[in-house]
Task: structure prediction
Amino acid sequence: MAKTQKTNRSIEKLNPVDKSDPDLVLAVIETPMGSRNKFKFDPKLGAFILGGVLPQGMMFPHAFGFVPSTRAADGDPEDILVIMDEPTFTGCVVHTRLIGVIEAEQREKDGEKERNDRIVAVAAHSHDHSDLHSITDMNDNAIEEIEQFFVNYNRERGKQFKVLGRKGPKSAWKLLKKSFLKKRK
Result:
C-alpha cells in the first residue's frame, strides 16, 4: 500500500518538460476524450477520483488533464486539453506539443473571478492532427465548439466561463513557464 501511494503521488512531481525532447510537455490525463465522467487527481489520496458526471449528451471533446509540477493562477496545476487520435485512460502520461492557449476568466458561485486558462496541445504521437502547430491551424468551428464546451461545463457546475482570447504556442509556453514549480529536493 505505501509503495502504491508513493508511486501515485510521484505523478504530481513529474518533470513537465520531456528531458529527451525539450519541445514536448508531459500531460497527465484525468478525463479521456468522449467521457461523461469528470475525473481529477487527488494529491492527498494519491489517486484519481470521480469529480462529477456530465448530463446525458454532453462529453469531453478531447482528453483533459494537467501539466505536472505546475501551479496556475487558480492554485491548481495548469489545465491542458490534449487533441489526440483516440481516447486514452485516466492517469496516462502523454507527450504533447503545445499549440496554444484559450485565455479565460471563470466566475465562481460566490461571484469571485479568477483566470482559468486552458493550454491546448496535440499528442506527439498523433497521426490525424500532426499538421496542427498553432491554435490558428484549427478549424474555426472546432475551436469554437471547444470553447462552448467549457462555457456549458462550467454553467452545469454553477460557474461562469468567459473566453478572453486565443493565443498561439509562444503564449502557451510563456504561461506554462510562469507556472513551473521550483525543483523539489
Observations:
- Residues 61 and 175 are 23 Å apart (CA to CA).
- Residues 1-7 have pLDDT under 50 and may be disordered.
- The chain has one domain: 2-175.
